[in-house]
């Protein structure tokens, strides 16, 4: 991946997505990203400039993803690195107390949202003959914990989905699931409360994670990766 210079990131409005967008930009990469917040997207457009691309899109909605991908391709070309980062977590509760609407939002964003991005981006990567896909999983995609069953289900799904996808991709492309580790974000605080402050923030994490992501190549295909601690 040493020659890669274009990264697409979902969920760029805050947390890891925002930190990665900033970090890749600082390293001279062309960045495209999406999020649901029009205000944040407009801020990113002004901050990053016209050589980059940011669009308002809810990854759970296929038509919005399609329009984002069309705009990103026109501005940046096919991505060298696709980071499917956007995700939601349920409010901590026993599974039977999680409202159906909340469960649907988690699955629609964390699983269907990843598939929507893949559906529209993989053909571009295939035409270009290159591309590394990183689907963000979690420690809770390889283990489980009480009161976050919907989130666990979504991330276990990402692990299996990515392993199967890796067997389908042509030469030149690769897909891996990534456990980013434990990071102090709003999502973690929803489960850990104030104790989340004991873990690195998104900015500190990105400074460690981005060189790791840049170093990925097709040999990562099908692997379940974890950002080094």
Mean pLDDT: 93
Please provide the ordered H/E string of secondary-structure elements.
EHEHEHEHEHEHHE
Shape category? globular
Beta-strand residue fraction: 15-25%
In total, how many beta strands?
7
Q: How many strands, which pairing sense, and closed or not: the largest β-sheet?
A: 7 strands, parallel
Rg to the nearest angstrom? Answer: 16 Å
Assign a percent range to the helix content: 40-55%
Lateral strand order in the biggest sheet: 3-2-1-4-5-6-7
- Structural class call reads alpha/beta
DSSP helix count? 7
Q: Unreliable runs, pLDDT <50, ≥5 residues?
A: none
Distance between the termini: 21 Å
List the helices and strands and how they pair.
Layout: E1 6-10, H1 15-26, E2 30-35, H2 38-48, E3 53-56, H3 62-76, E4 81-84, H4 100-128, E5 131-136, H5 149-168, E6 173-179, H6 186-192, H7 202-214, E7 224-226
Helix pairs in contact: 1-7, 3-4, 4-5
Describe the structure.
The chain is globular. It has seven helices and seven strands, in the order E-H-E-H-E-H-E-H-E-H-E-H-H-E. The protein is 47% helix and 15% strand. A seven-stranded parallel sheet has the order 3-2-1-4-5-6-7, sandwiched between helices. Strand 5, helix 5 and strand 6 form a beta-alpha-beta unit. With 229 residues, it is of the alpha/beta class.
